[in-house]
Amino acid sequence: MRKGFTLVELLVVIAIIGMLVGLLLPAVQQAREAARAMQCNNNLKQMGLACMNHESQTGKFPSAGWNCSWSGDGDRGLGKKQPGGWTFSLLPFMEQNALFMSTSNNDPLNPNRAAITAAHQTPLPVFTCPSRRACKLYPSGCPPTSNCDSTDQLARGDYASNYGVIDAVNTAGYPGSYANADKDSGWVTQPYNGVIYSCSEVTIGEIRDGTSNTYLIGEKNKNSSIYEESCSCDDNGVFAGADPDNSRSTKIAPAQDRAGYENRQAFGSAHSGSSGYAMCDGSVQRISYSIDLEIHQYLGNRSDGKAAQIPQ
Fold first, then answer.
1. Which of 4, 131, 168, 227 is the most buried (most CB within 10 A)?
2. Which is it for strands 159-162 and 247-248: parallel, antiparallel or unpaired?
3. Model confidence over 40-70: pLDDT tens digits?
């Protein structure tokens, strides 16, 4: 008797295996996305705790820096005189003090341009959402030139601070120069009612609606068709000062990333169903894209007298 499989039997087995793989693949992809979302939540948790440690040491939450024409400078310390963004100010509280201090040359009036540029080209996984893109260098569109050298490649970030319920770009109010900053001249009163914005010095006591009910940092909305490219709200380095790249408003509803759409003021993410936020007490919450806009705005305002509860 001849042993072995007939061609028909082999085709049936192959078809069954193909069907099983087809059934299994979505479950594998779902498990991978769940792991990426968990990592994203962990990133937000680390940033939230670093903000709490910053507030504990300095008495204030970190500033969002001056504007996108400036980057982080270790000689400028912490607070509103630091031109770099909130991400840069968090480095000493995230076991990255060496990177923070690598930009220093012990001269707070003359930036170490080469070192600041090198830091600007240092991608860190904690500032990257794994569901959106890899932690690497990306093309720059408008690199800072005021205190670092131009470069065509920069590390980017996927998270933004909450500057409140304001329909405006968060870039006003910076002093314009190191000298002006040290003289406290040229400052502009900020209208923002969030927590971290241009030259901000918000204390925990100013968050009168409750730290667990106020956004601190969240994921930002991004056009999914140009993750690898530069655009007007994703063209600066991760340590640049206040800009839609790293500061967002709750004036607009959060939105999931999708091809061809981007709102340079909105929060959002690459995840389906919800995006993540670090609250002012250091906790992390997932907020549905379908959240009532009024509730979203209450959560973005630190002291409107309307302590909205996190939707369950």
1. 131
2. parallel
3. 999 999 999 999 999 999 999 999 999 888 9
